[in-house]
Amino acid sequence: MLSIFRQYTFDDSFQQVFISSKFLKEYQIALTFATDYDQNNIPSNGIFRPTWDTTKITPESIINFKKQHPNVNIKVYISIGNRGTKFPFSPQSTNKSWILNATQSLTNIIKNKEDSNLQVDGIDVLYEQIDASPVDFVECIGQLIKNLKENGVIKEASISPSFGLNKEYYFLLYKTYFYLIDWVDYQFQNEVFPIFAPNKLVEIYDELVKEFYPRKKLFAGYSAENEDWATLSPIVFFLGGMDILKKRRGPGISIHYHNYYQQNSNNE
Predict the structure, then answer these.
(1) Which tens digits make up the pLDDT trace of 229-259?
(2) Which long-range contacts (CB under 8 A, 24 or more apart) does 106-109 make?
(3) What is the architecture of the domain spanning 3-266?
(4) d(CA 258, CA 13)
(5) What is the pTM of this model?
(6) Catalytic residues, which ones?
(7) What are phi and psi of 182, to 5 degrees?
(8) How many whole angstroms separate alpha carbon 43 and alpha carbon 37?
């Protein structure tokens, strides 16, 4: 069983994770987060900046990690947005200006000068709060992905929906731009009702496949942060996730952990 594993990380904690080519064909490092809010938490209308620890996430740390695991395909994603209600998706002007700003600023981050190039492969869209209409969200994010791909800035793109925003926002985005979206990383820790049994997790996954996204693109996403355990515990996700990978032939799983979100908020 060769699968994809994605770790959302603010720092270089990915270097501490055991990786074996016997189980993994690909390891994705998703950097959290690029945000279009300035240092004073004021919306910047699509002008993104990195909020991960740039002293630990360096070209050297990425290169060394890849050298340590030559038999696993290592990819780097930039995750735009934020967890929780802070820093929502909220264009401050026309969609056209947000798209232009976002395209230029993310291009600058990804295609930076040679000594700070993180070899980014793609972007991930993870907004848990959206203060805009579904139509505006779809146009802005869809055109951003389209621009970055057509300009050769990224090769891949993923979206990370959760229960409250899935049908109205993310699925509409996927239906409109499915040909540009390579992965869908569904965030199970945001379910309305707690998931107490592995078979319930699998049941929800199967429903997502039936109603929304193709199985070949659908990750099972999870947060191991302590505050999310009440909704989904590590053991339930592990058992359910193994079932999804083995029996349902899901392509991969993702995990948020290490309490770096608290560090992130302290740096903003």
Answers:
(1) 889 999 999 999 999 999 989 999 999 975 5
(2) 106/34, 106/48, 106/78, 106/80, 106/144, 106/148, 106/153, 107/148, 107/151, 107/153, 109/34, 109/48, 109/49, 109/50, 109/78
(3) Alpha-Beta Barrel (3.20)
(4) 8
(5) 0.94
(6) 128
(7) -85, -35
(8) 4
